[in-house]
Amino acid sequence: MESISFYEMTKRERELWQIEQKRLFELMYKIKKDGSDKTRIGELEITLHPNVFSPLHFPETQWFAKQLSETIVRNGENFLEVGVGSGLISLSISKFSKANVTGVDINPDAVNITLTNFKNNNEIPFGGIHNSDLFNTLKSLNPNQNKFKYIFWNHPWQQCKNSIINELQSEKTLDNGYVLLRRYIEESKDFLTPDGSLLLGTCNFANINSIKSIANDLDYGIIVLRKGEESLNILKNVNEIYYILKFIKNDKSKFPIQE
Description:
Largest sheet: 8 strands, mixed
Oligomer: single chain
Low-confidence stretches: 167-171
Strand order of the largest sheet: 1-9-10-8-7-4-5-6
Radius of gyration: 17 Å
Distance between the termini: 17 Å
Number of helices: 7
Mean pLDDT: 86
Shape: globular
Structural class: alpha/beta
């Protein structure tokens, strides 16, 4: 594990990234709504939806799924995913880690597609998949059944509306001012086990300074659990660097945030 430090991209790299992101969103929005568009990702068959972040078009979902299911989450542990999207991450953890999975998403299309993908791959989400604004729905359920060893969110790190087509500009793809991220960190304490880990999936194109600032405001240290890099499909000169971050309460002296 390493203290948090990030690669700083050039202005030209960010411009190319925004162009490629918009192209991928345009391709994603052409997916049929009837469930006929599917893709195979490893051993899994994934049904796609135009209103749900697509693991076929954006590589980070596959990377997070692989890292979490193969190297972090273990058999029998309780895992909560915030923002399930297509369900690939939760499905991978359920099938390959044999963990007890619960998922939430503010997008009802994402909830339905995730349930479809669990069913089509002969898996059952242990704690269900719920339509919820972050943790809100879970607050009304039995609190003893909603304590998790891991809570993870592939946070919508997009900062520029220009890289997202108008039809998809919502809380599914944008967290303006990272207000939702602040809520995620603040509210998670009610749902973690005493030894639980609060995790975040992010990228070098996120507003890294905001993540650092929010963590610092809320008295959290940050460490990097995993780091990796993938190309954005066609434009092989546009790479994204992915991070799985762990927030640690009152531990900033041990895990300082590097500037």
